[in-house]
Every structure is written in structure tokens, then in C-alpha cells.
Write a structure and sequence with these properties.
Strand content: 15-25%
CATH class of the largest domain: Mainly Alpha
CATH architecture of the largest domain: Up-down Bundle
Strand order of the largest sheet: 3-6-7-10
Shape: globular
CATH superfamily of the largest domain: Butyryl-CoA Dehydrogenase, subunit A, domain 3
CATH topology of the largest domain: Butyryl-CoA Dehydrogenase, subunit A, domain 3
Largest sheet: 4 strands, mixed
Radius of gyration: 21 Å
Structural class: alpha+beta
Number of strands: 12
């Protein structure tokens, strides 16, 4: 049992759940931890290499069934996300976007032909997917997206642009959402299509170990078979976001745990005024408060995971988890930085890297303000979005 597991939460997990967590932790320790600081400093990540390794373990689309997917439970998927983000939020984002956004959209809303074409290769990590919803001028308000889809004979023609799209620079298929005369529609678009181009987003100060791109759609022509036939209206892409937010609830606690483990180890080893700084009351107060919030967040994630596996998880409950856990994880990362002092800003330690990453996690898949309004609407019955 970890010294941070004050409430013995491990006792609430099954042997199989602990095994999946352990396997994910081992592959992260082998493939990611020794290299991630360098990836972050250079602003790059070997997406295809990692995808193939993650595919071998069944981590890509692991909570989906069929088509080469593992068919894991929500809790098992959450535990995997926790271990991935304990290494780096960008690495967890790679898996989340692949499985909970791109693959889930095709799995839930695609035709059998689309599923057979894309999902087995994506589950194996041989094909990379991305999810094109956010636009330069439409982030929290996707209902007013500017990207358009128009019919031209038997084809569809897509025009517009998408921004802040994880995996886009290396993707083989992009799930693109566009407005049409028939409402919001989804399309599985091969990135090799004429008129489809990607500009990699550089000079990021957060999620640097993640491939991010801006997609331009210049009269991209796709056949009718590219449209996701069951996706009609804005509820379809929003349901995909709910899937991705669930992984974030767990992942954020992984980042927080890594920060707290680092700070605790540092405080026990670092001596000032003749004794370890862990022996000072103010340091212990910080450690205690952070450990309590970490345990509460992990318990919340587990509760929501059990509800998901029982078929009773509601979107506003996911908003509670995303709002609380990312907010608290960011606060823990910042507080841990103070315990490390000047060393807290060094790339030799993961704490400020986690803090910088969590600034993005706080915003993507719904800002804190959006989740507050989702919860507020549930409490009051009033829509305050407009």
C-alpha cells in the first residue's frame, strides 16, 4: 500500500483492476518516464512508437468492445489513465483522443464498414486518429462552429478549420464535425484527402510532450460513406467529450499523485536548520492537506467509475469529477512546487511540468466555467450558457 493511500482505497479494487494498473505502470516506467523530460524540453513526442506499444497492451480504445478493442471496464480504463498521466498529461491525451474521442465516435456513430476500416488498426496503434471539433473562434461554443459541410452530388465537401487538435500532425483519420443543412454532422476523413492540411502548433508552454495541430479544410471532398450515419446534432460530439472527460477525472489524480510523491520524498531528504523539512509543521500541514484532497479525488473517480460500469453515470456527474479533480490536481502541483523551492522549477523534477500541463487540462474538454454551468443547470433547472 502506498503511504499516500490514507483511506486504503486499494482495498476497493479487484485483483484484475490492480493488475491492469500495475501493467500500465510498468510500461509507463519503461517507455515514458526515462524520456518524457527530454520530450517536454524539445516539444516533441514519438506518437507512433508509443501508440504501437500501447496497442500491444490493449490500452487504445480499451473500454470499447469488438474490432480489436479490449472491452475493459470503466474503472480499468480509469486506472490506466491515472498511470499514464502520472507520467505526463500529454501521453494520457494521446490515449484519450485516440480511444475516447476518435475511436469512440466511429464505434458509437459509424457504419459497420467504417468500424471495420478504422477501428482494428487504431486499436493496434497502427493508425492514429484525431477529433476535430474545436475551432479558432469557437471553443466552448461548438454549436456555432464555422466549419461547413455541403452536398455535391453523391459527395460531401468540407470547408473550414479546427484548432488545438491533439494527434492531428500524425493522424491517419480525422473525425470532423461540421454544420450542414441537416444540422451538425460527423465525418471520418482520411488525412490524405486533397485539401486537408495540418499546421503543427509549436511554442507551447504546456502539453509539450503532445502533438497538437491546426487543421485546414479547403474544399475537402469525401464520399457519402465517410459520414458517420448515426451522428445527427450536437449531442453526438458532446457525448464523445463526456467519454474523454471521464478519463481526465482519473488522469488528473495521477498527475497529482506524482507531484505529491515527489514532494514527500524531497521533503524527507532535504535538510534545513539541521533536520528534514518534512519535520516542520508548515510542511506537514501542506502534505496533509494535499493528501486529503488526493484521496477525495481518487474516491470520487472510483465512485463515478462504478456508476459508469453500472450504466448510471450522468453527464453532470462527469462535470463534477472533471471540475473538482483537475482543479485540485492543479492546486496540489502548485503547492508541491513550493515544497521543492527553487528545485521545483527544474526539469529534473516533474512537478512544474505537471502544473504547466494541468493548466491545459483545466481548459480542454470543457473549461471549469463550462462545468460549473452544467452543474448549475442541474441544480437550478435554468440554462445560464446564453
Amino acid at each position: 500500500m502506498s503511504s499516500l493511500d490514507l483511506l486504503d482505497l486499494d482495498d476497493l479494487l479487484t485483483d484484475e483492476e490492480r493488475d491492469i494498473r500495475a501493467v500500465t505502470r510498468r510500461v509507463v516506467d519503461d517507455l515514458v518516464r526515462p524520456r518524457v523530460a527530454d520530450w517536454y524540453e524539445r516539444g516533441t513526442v514519438p506518437v507512433r512508437e508509443l501508440a504501437l506499444e500501447f496497442g500491444k497492451l490493449g490500452l487504445l480504445g480499451m473500454h470499447l468492445s469488438g474490432y480489436g478493442c479490449a472491452g475493459a471496464t470503466a474503472v480499468q480504463y480509469g486506472l490506466a489513465c491515472q498511470e499514464l498521466e502520472a507520467a505526463d498529461s500529454g501521453v494520457r491525451s494521446l490515449v484519450s483522443v485516440q480511444g475516447s474521442l476518435a475511436m469512440y465516435a466511429i464505434w458509437r456513430y459509424g457504419s459497420e464498414e467504417q468500424k471495420q476500416r478504422w477501428l482494428p488498426g487504431m486499436a493496434a496503434g497502427e493508425l492514429i486518429g484525431c477529433f476535430g471539433l474545436t475551432e479558432p473562434d469557437h471553443g466552448s461554443d461548438p454549436g456555432n462552429m464555422a466549419t461547413r459541410a455541403r452536398r455535391d452530388g453523391a459527395d460531401w465537401v468540407l470547408t473550414g478549420g479546427k484548432m488545438w487538435i491533439t494527434n492531428a500532425p500524425v493522424a491517419d483519420v480525422a473525425v470532423i464535425w461540421a454544420r450542414s443543412d441537416d444540422g451538425v454532422l460527423g465525418f471520418a476523413v482520411p488525412t490524405s484527402s486533397p485539401g486537408f492540411s495540418v499546421r503543427e502548433v509549436t511554442r507551447k508552454l504546456s502539453l509539450r510532450a503532445s502533438a497538437t495541430g491546426e487543421i485546414a479544410l479547403d474544399e475537402v471532398r469525401v464520399p457519402a460513406e465517410a459520414r458517420l450515419p448515426l451522428a445527427a446534432g450536437l449531442k453526438a460530439p458532446l457525448s464523445c467529450l463526456t467519454e474523454a472527460r471521464f478519463g481526465i477525472i482519473w488522469g488528473a489524480m495521477g498527475a497529482a499523485r506524482d507531484c505529491l510523491e515527489t514532494a514527500l520524498s524531497y521533503a524527507l531528504a532535504r535538510e534545513q536548520f539541521g533536520r528534514p523539512i518534512a519535520g516542520f509543521q508548515l510542511t506537514q500541514a501542506k502534505l496533509a492537506d494535499m493528501a486529503v484532497e488526493l484521496q477525495k479525488g481518487c474516491l470520487l473517480a472510483l465512485h463515478l467509475g462504478r456508476r459508469a460500469d453500472a450504466g448510471g453515470l450522468r453527464p453532470e456527474q462527469v462535470s463534477v469529477g472533471k471540475l473538482n479533480n483537475v482543479r485540485e490536481a492543479l492546486a496540489i502541483a502548485r503547492q508541491c512546487r513550493t515544497i521543492l523551492g527553487a528545485n521545483g522549477i527544474s526539469g529534473e523534477y516533474p512537478v512544474l511540468r505537471h502544473a504547466n500541463n494541468l493548466e491545459s487540462v483545466l481548459t480542454y474538454e470543457g473549461t471549469s466555467e463550462v462545468h460549473q454551468l452544467v452543474i448549475g443547470q442541474r441544480l437550478t433547472g435554468l440554462n445560464a450558457f446564453a
